[in-house]
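Comment thread on ticket #2218

A.B. wrote:
> Attaching the input chain for the structure job we discussed in standup.
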Amino acid sequence: MRSLTVRAVPRAALWLGLLAALACNPESRKTEAAQDTVQRFFEALPGGDCAVLGTLLIGKAADTCRATVDEMNAHSFSLVEVLDAKVDGRDPNAVVVRARVARDGQVHEQPLLLRVEHHSDGWKLRL
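C.D. wrote:
> Ran it. Output below, let me know if you need it in another format.
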């Protein structure tokens, strides 16, 4: 009888651990997708191709995409590193990404807060 009790405890702990991992998984998938969107945007930024960049931005028509991209490239915006990402407590479909960026060759000490939102056609950056 004792061996059944001893074996039941590790099995229960295993199930609890598995359930905890599954509960955390959706949030980590969101933060990873948001970070990936930020990285892809900054990788594509120097090319200035709004056909690519526009798909990563919220509500940017071709002309506003061009103006935004031209302005950012005129100041040599670049991603130095993604510091972290957290799901927005007010909106479960939005993630706030903290990133260190460089502008005009200078790395900014204060991180830039970037909002990335989930839409039916994927994760998009709001600038």
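A.B. wrote:
> Thanks. Noting for the ticket: The two ends are 64 Å apart (CA to CA).
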